[in-house]
TrEMBL record:
This is Exportin-4. It comes from the Eukaryota. It is found in: Cytoplasm; Nucleus. It comes from Protea cynaroides. GO terms for molecular function: nuclear export signal receptor activity; small GTPase binding.
Length: 1163
């Protein structure tokens, strides 16, 4: 290859001509003249002869900055692509050129060009990192070190630091550039840099910053030394953000005992993106013992004082970088500190806290200054410091940190700061997210970290000051929320959207409020009771004489807060009564006097008044009822007939030692007030469903939150089904029309809850009869209407469509609630409507919404029934499903018309997409019969061949799925999941498919392996692996395998169609060698390619020979031949298809692609 730096004189004309062409193209793009042509011209640079010399010439001679930028980009792209064929000298020369260029042009005004060349140099250095010897790595970095330490001047110092930034970014897997290499390569580079150089880089940045400190302190912020110091701090911060792995061995992974445990660390990472830094003991001298932190805090403090009259300094790049590094140093943990029971870490945190205390204290003065125009950024960073420190310490240690340098405890400081921020939020009287909004959220995260119950020990115990601080903060927060509620009472906000949007928006903050309240329950529970009592009194005394709107809005807010304080979100499980509420109030012996009982009863009594029509009209607006229903759902999940309260075995001793706990758990139990409260809840539910027509948000909370909470537990259902109120609701559901006004989703959910309550019946026979009584009238109506001779004339009437839709959604809800004890009745329900379903599908074939409901009912019914069915019933169900598929297919083949407008075409495709997803789900549900089968049939002869049925179903459905429809990601994923499952589990069935069905599968797999979704490509590759492996093993046993599908055949037009294995061997090699794909696919591709090669060894040899012959360069031809030989012979690879050989072939393929892919793509 040509020397990079000494172009021959006769080539000068070519270099200049190319440079002018690229400059013109760059100018055209800026002027928006023929941008497509200009972009093509720039891309053609990558195919230019003598590319590296040309790009070097442009970089050193062009006066157009963008042309130089494009030249650097071209060097990067081509070098990465051709790396495998570059000589060792060429690789070193490329890296050296980038380093020399940025240092020699350090004073260039075009920073983005310098940044690009630095990034290219870093990327090329990483690409060759594992190729370079240690001495070569040292030689490169010694040049960078000299620049960073100032040997080439201040401008070069800045550039050198920027180059290290690029290197650290490139070597970190999270921010590295894609190079088409396996993950192991990136991991090896990361580990090498962390082990040998990362600490050196940090030290160089320290020295660089220290060398310019005097100049930075003495001069104004415009001098270049400030930029150098800023860049050095930024690099140090970047290194502190590194995901240190080498220090996390078995000994060092444990969090220091100084911390309250790993759980807070994980929770905090999820919520606040707080990254704890664990660099290991080798960094102790650099970060802890060297005085580095004292220097940093002193430098920031000095410049802060110097710039105290400059309102913009706090937001300057230097100030921001310094504070970021300070915050990150606050998060140091792990074995960087010795095993001294946390003493050194405590001293470190005290030092950090003493440096940042002026950012946040005194809170009132700082808040006032911010309101008068001072930047809030420093206060917010100070809040983040408290968050990081709280992450690393127990509450006791957190509180005493500040006491060593101040009479104030850290918890008291946190409390006063939180209160001041809340007061500022109250004073702003705006819904915009101001500084106080962000500060409040950070401080609430800090409180959450302190108060979140840990997994081990008693480290979370709060000192008395902490309990008082929590009570103070909660008191003010509640005052703030009530003020906001009252102020917004007359707002005309748009409450449309998700049913729980107004509640869920506050959920995270409310959870933090709950932790604060539970930390001081002796104060906060009585406070909430008092606040409710005051508002109830205001309502009653002002009835008819004053506007209750503000009071009702305050009650809405109080209900949300109290619901979070009293109960946790079970997230699908039954939540327990919070331990803080169980453990306190130990002196309370009578259940009625327990503060939690008093508070709960006052709210339930208030909610019960909504049953009175007059009171409901006066006070219980839909919005307030939403909060009531939400509260009752959350509360009943925890307190209504709790299992703990009913146990009288091992827990007796514990209850006897804690009478207050027993009183709390038993008051709303099965043998006390539980049934009475359950009756009230059912009556309120009936009221919301009937008396609030059109209030979909309220009805969704009732159907999808409250009723599921009531029917979730069998012991509650046992009492529920005995209540007259529940019988009234069931009668209205089964026989009345008052509930037909509910939306389709709510109909479905209501039916599901009604059926689930059957779990409370005394036995299976009673449960099945209960289901028949509930659903019998509905199934009879569908049977009657479908057999009506006038059906075609009345079916399209709105009332008829509404009735059919409601009944279908109810049937679907019942099907979704299928349980073993009610399976018989629900199966009978489905059998009775099979014929009506097919009739309605025919009648409503042009009503897409009804068609979709019909399909979804069948999907859910089959899903709940298929695993329980005996052979005879399975045959009936499968036959029905095939009739359904064929009927739907006959209505929809070619139905989408290209003559429709784009909007109508898109709408119709969306309707088809939903239908086809439902049909694919139906086929998947049928598949489950072969995986899970609870039937008692033992005769194989009587069983339905599920695989054959599903393949037939796919044959029916596949023609409906066009390439346009496969652009819908969910449909595409569902289709390939089902297809790959069938091919993987039943490869023997492929040989039995007819040519048309098989052609569909081949076309689909071909589409799938070129899909942009890597998961879909993976599924197709797994399917190819199974098919090829099946064929290879079957042929080895003397059987046919895939038969003619593997050998190839003549199509109907007399044209030869090659077999599936040979076709995909060629397609997969083409993909791996010449096309773009994610490196994550290489392992799956190797697993598919290995059996394909074994099946088609002759074709593989021919393809390899053709590939070699196409290569004109003798040296590359030899390399390619050797690489192809090694692919199938290295690592003692044999022709046996087993796990060990598959692993060997994976390694061989990685090596093969690394060796040849780069130069093959340049052919």
């Amino acid at each position: 290859m040509q020397n990079f730096f000494n172009g021959r004189p006769e080539d000068l004309v070519h270099f200049q001509s190319t440079m002018q062409t690229i400059e013109h193209a760059c100018s055209s793009i800026q002027m928006h003249t023929n941008p497509a042509v200009a972009e093509a011209t720039i891309l053609s640079l990558r195919q230019s002869p003598q590319l590296y010399q040309t790009c070097k010439f442009i970089l050193e001679n062009s006066q157009v900055a963008n042309a130089r930028f494009q030249a650097a980009a071209a060097i990067r792209d081509v070098a990465i692509r051709e790396w495998g064929i570059l000589s060792a000298d060429d690789k070193r020369s490329l890296v050296s050129f980038c380093l020399c260029f940025v240092i020699q042009h350090a004073s260039s005004p075009d920073a983005y060009v310098q940044g690009k060349v630095s990034a290219v140099g870093a990327q090329l250095m990483k690409r060759g990192w594992l190729d370079f010897m240690e001495s070569e790595q040292e030689a490169f970095l010694s040049e960078v070190q000299m620049a960073v330490l100032g040997n080439h001047g201040v401008a070069a110092q800045f550039i050198g630091i920027n180059f290290l930034e690029s290197m650290v970014s490139e070597f970190s897997p999270a921010t590295s550039t894609a190079m088409g290499l396996p993950r192991e390569f990136h991991e090896q580079c990361r580990a090498s840099l962390e082990l040998h150089y990362l600490k050196k880089f940090y030290c160089w940045a320290q020295e660089a910053a220290f060398s310019v400190t005097n100049k930075v302190v003495e001069c104004d912020s415009s001098v270049l030394e400030v930029k150098v110091c800023d860049a050095a701090l930024r690099l140090m911060f970047q290194i502190m953000n590194w995901d240190f792995q080498l220090s996390k061995n078995a000994h060092e992974r444990a969090i220091n005992v100084f911390s309250s445990g790993l759980r807070n660390y994980v929770v905090l990472l999820k919520k606040s993106e707080c990254i704890l830094v664990q660099p290991g003991s080798s960094w102790r001298d650099v970060l802890i013992s060297s005085g580095h932190i004292g220097w940093l805090l002193s430098l920031y403090g000095t410049l802060r004082q110097k710039s105290s009259f400059d309102t913009y300094w706090l937001d300057s790049p230097f100030a921001v970088s310094a504070r970021q590094l300070i915050i990150q140093l606050c998060s140091l943990t792990g074995t960087i500190f010795p095993s001294d029971n946390g003493q050194m870490q405590e001293l470190h945190l005290v030092q950090m806290l003493s440096g940042i205390i002026q950012w946040i204290h005194p809170p009132d003065i700082i808040s006032a200054a911010i309101e008068n125009g001072k930047s809030e950024s420093e206060l917010l960073d100070g809040c983040r410091v408290l968050l990081y420190i709280a992450t690393l310490t127990t509450p006791m240690v957190f509180d005493k940190l500040l006491k060593s340098i101040s009479p104030l405890g850290t918890l008291s400081l946190l409390s006063s700061l939180t209160c001041e921020v809340v007061k500022a939020r109250m004073a702003e009287n705006t819904k915009e997210e101001t500084w106080s909004w962000y500060a409040r959220d950070i401080l609430l995260d800090t409180w959450t970290t302190i108060l979140q119950p840990p997994d081990i020990g008693k480290d979370a115990e709060l000192p008395p000051e902490g309990i008082r601080a929590s009570a103070c903060v909660f008191n003010l927060i509640v005052e703030s929320e009530l003020k906001d509620a009252s102020a917004s009472a007359f707002d005309d906000g748009d409450d449309s959207g998700l049913p729980q949007a107004s509640i869920s928006a506050m959920d995270e903050r409310l959870s933090s409020y709950a932790l604060l309240a539970r930390a001081a329950v002796d104060v906060t529970i009585p406070l909430l009771t008092k606040l409710f009592s005051e508002r109830f009194t205001l309502l009653y005394h002002g009835r008819g004489t004053s506007d209750p709107t503000c009071t009702l809005e305050e009650l809405y807010s109080l209900l949300l807060i109290t619901g979070h304080v009293l109960a946790d979100d079970g997230e699908g499980e039954t939540p327990l009564v919070p331990e803080a509420l169980q453990a306190h109030f130990v002196d309370i012996l009578e259940a009625k006097q327990h503060p939690v009982v008093v508070l709960s009863c006052s709210i339930i009594k208030f909610a019960e008044q909504s049953l009175d029509p007059e009171t409901r009209a006066a006070y219980f607006s839909p919005r307030l009822m939403e909060a009531v229903i939400w509260f009752l759902a959350r509360w009943s999940d925890t307190y209504l007939m709790p299992l703990e309260g009913g146990r009288q075995s091992d827990g007796d001793c514990q209850h006897e030692s804690q009478p207050s706990k027993k009183a709390l758990l038993s008051f709303f139990g099965e043998h006390n007030q539980g049934k009475l409260v359950l009756d009230i809840i059912v009556k309120i539910s009936m009221t919301t469903l009937v008396s609030y027509p059109g209030e979909t948000q309220l009805q969704e909370l009732t159907c999808c939150l409250l009723l599921p909470a009531v029917v979730r537990r069998k012991n509650v259902c046992a009492h529920l089904v005995t209540l007259d109120s529940w019988h009234n609701l069931a009668n209205a559901f089964a026989n009345g029309r008052s509930l037909f006004s509910l939306t389709a989703t709510h109909q479905r959910s209501l039916a599901e809850n009604m059926i689930r309550s059957a779990a409370g019946m005394r036995n299976s026979e009673a449960s099945n009869q209960y289901v028949r009584d509930l659903m019998g009238q509905m199934t009879s109506y569908l049977v009657d209407i479908s057999s009506d001779s006038n059906l075609k004339s009345i079916a399209q009437q709105p009332d008829a469509i509404l009735s059919v839709s409601c009944l279908l959604e109810r049937l679907r809800g019942a099907a979704r609630a299928s349980q073993p004890r009610t399976q018989k009745a629900i199966f009978e329900m489905g059998i009775s409507v099979m014929k009506p379903i097919l009739t309605l599908l025919e009648i409503y074939k042009h009503e897409s919404a009804v068609v979709y409901m019909l399909l979804k009912f069948v999907v859910d019914w089959v899903d709940g029934q298929i695993v329980f069915l005996e052979a005879k019933d399975t045959t009936i169900v499968v036959s029905f499903c095939m009739q359904l598929l064929q009927l739907y297919s006959s209505h929809n083949i070619g139905k989408i018309s290209l003559s429709l407008s784009s909007s109508l075409l898109s709408e119709e495709r969306t309707e088809k997409y939903k239908d086809l997803r439902a049909l694919l789900q139906l086929l998947k549900n049928l598949c489950s019969k072969d995986l899970v089968d609870f039937s008692s049939d033992s005769s194989e002869a009587e069983r339905t061949d599920i695989a054959q049925v599903v393949y037939l179903g796919l044959h029916i459905v596949t023609p409906l799925i066009s390439l346009e429809l496969l652009k819908y990601p969910k449909l595409c994923r569902d289709y390939f999941e089902l297809l790959s499952h069938m091919l993987e589990v039943y490869p023997e069935k492929v040989a039995q498919l007819n040519n048309e069905a098989f052609a569909h599968i081949v076309g689909t797999l071909d589409f799938g392996i070129h899909h942009q979704d890597t998961e879909i490509v993976n599924m197709c590759l797994r399917a190819l692996n199974v098919l090829a492996s099946y064929h290879y093993k079957e042929r080895g046993a003397g059987k046919e395998g895939l038969g003619s599908h593997a050998a190839g055949m003549m199509d109907q037009g007399g044209k030869w169609q090659e077999g599936i294995l040979s076709r995909f061997l060629q397609a997969l090699l083409q993909l791996l060698l010449f096309e773009d794909y994610s490196t994550e696919l290489v392992s799956s591709a190797a697993d598919a390619l290995f059996p394909l090669i074994l099946c088609e060894q002759g074709l593989y040899q021919r393809l390899g020979h053709e590939l070699i012959e196409r290569q004109m360069n003798p040296q590359l031809k030899s390399r390619l031949a050797n690489a192809l030989q090694c692919l199938t012979s290295s690592n003692e690879l044999s022709s046996t298809l087993d796990r060990i050989n598959s692993q060997k072939f994976r390694k061989n393929l990685y090596a093969f692609l690394g060796e040849v892919r780069g130069f093959l793509r340049t052919m």
